[in-house]
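Handout, section B. The chain below has 185 residues.
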Amino acid sequence: MSAFIVSERTMQRVVTAMRREEGAWEDACQLGRDLYAMNHRAIEARYGEPQYVPPFEWTVQMLPDEGDRKRWCELLKALDCLLYQCSEGDVPKEALYKQLEACRNKLRAEIVHGLPEYDKAPWDGEPPAHTKRVCGLLDKGKKASAIAEHNAHVEAEFQRAKAGEVINLSDLIAASEQLHLADDE
């Protein structure tokens, strides 16, 4: 992929994301100019010739509402874009590049941690959802229901696999192990 000087729209988003961290909007114009200068140094390191750097004037950008994932992702994508464009020469060693990277990493973590899928994902040794259901039925003394639930789940996963989908074998194995342990009791 080729490197380039980012658009003003991308730079406005980057400055918005970075100023949000510090809450210091009064130096937003200078930050944008410094980021463009860094972008220029990276492009010059890559291609060996100066590039046109547009003048930067800060336009007040409203931060997205907390639940507006699309707009937060646009800010994140702008950070990723500028980081990529600035990854040439010695630029990644610069303090401003590291600030940009830290801002991107923090925003990325905030977005991911705000996803319902993240909340539903297992933590360490927490059993998968199907295994929890089977164990719950076994705990209630409903072994026949647990076996029926497991068999239905295995069949559904088999059909998904036949259709070319990726399935979670660890969930099936964990539930099977619980059923076998119940047989031993």
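Note. The radius of gyration is 25 Å. Compare this with the example in section A.
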